Amino acid sequence: MFCTGWRRVAEVVQDFRARGDAWKSARLQRNVRGDFSAWHRGRVWFLLWALDVDVPALRPLFAQARQQLAPWLLHGYRRQPHVTLGLCGFPGQTRAQSSLGDRMQEHHVAGESDSLPDACSLAGLRRQVEGLERSIALSPFRMDVGGAGSFTSAPFLAVHQGGELQALRAALALDPALQHLDDYLPHVTLGLFRASWQSSQLQQGLRAVDGLPTVSLQVRQVQLMAYAAADVGGPLVTVAAFDLRSRRLRWHPLACRVLGESWLKTWDG
Description:
By secondary structure, the chain is an alpha+beta fold. It contains eight helices and twelve strands. The protein has helices at 21-24, 37-40, 59-69, 122-134, 164-172, 203-210, 255-259, 261-268; strands at 45-52, 82-91, 95-97, 106-108, 119-120, 141-150, 155-160, 187-189, 215-219, 221-228, 236-243, 248-251. The strands form three sheets. Strands 5-2-1-10-11-12 form a six-stranded mixed β-sheet. Strands 8-7-6-9 form a four-stranded antiparallel β-sheet. The chain is globular and about 55 Å long.
């Protein structure tokens, strides 16, 4: 989850019964549907590195978990199952398009926005990909997804792995100022809370999710993804995929819409 406040009220653990009194007395963060123009300043897309786990093996678990927590979730959440590795920012100096439909509207991102602290430069993105290419610690791996957890703003499925995600994050060397986390906890976000309830009211739903089976997944690629900044909980689009075996980046068709032709032409040299 990367829309609003990822601040933990206590140490988040995978077993709800072990969370303790600090969690039980916490108040959940209310999320709302809005444009958040003060944040995006007219910039259309926001980039991040993630693992795309929207696969047949995980979809039933994801759907069941969301169903168990439906009374607490903000309506209209359409983000696919994913594991965020880190945030990149708004791509600068590009012509981007604001819709995935047939009727596209172009927006020119002013050069002034390129100097903002949440801007993602072409040079910065190239350094991230080069970090993946150079790292000797990276290769395909397995990870398990299952068990309930929650931030104050969003519930999630826990991710269990042997340190591979930390190795990926180290290779990417993302700007720490953009990450919005005191420390990294891999997870699959289930949605956003729609009201500021006491967390104790969520116990029954989280216990039900905690009882669902764990799913094992094979990870072979890392995705550069994007979402429309003005669409809270809107769908992710894949911009590029980095293959962990071949160590090569492959651009997806939507890359041109998100980054613009000038970025891609400069990248290809």
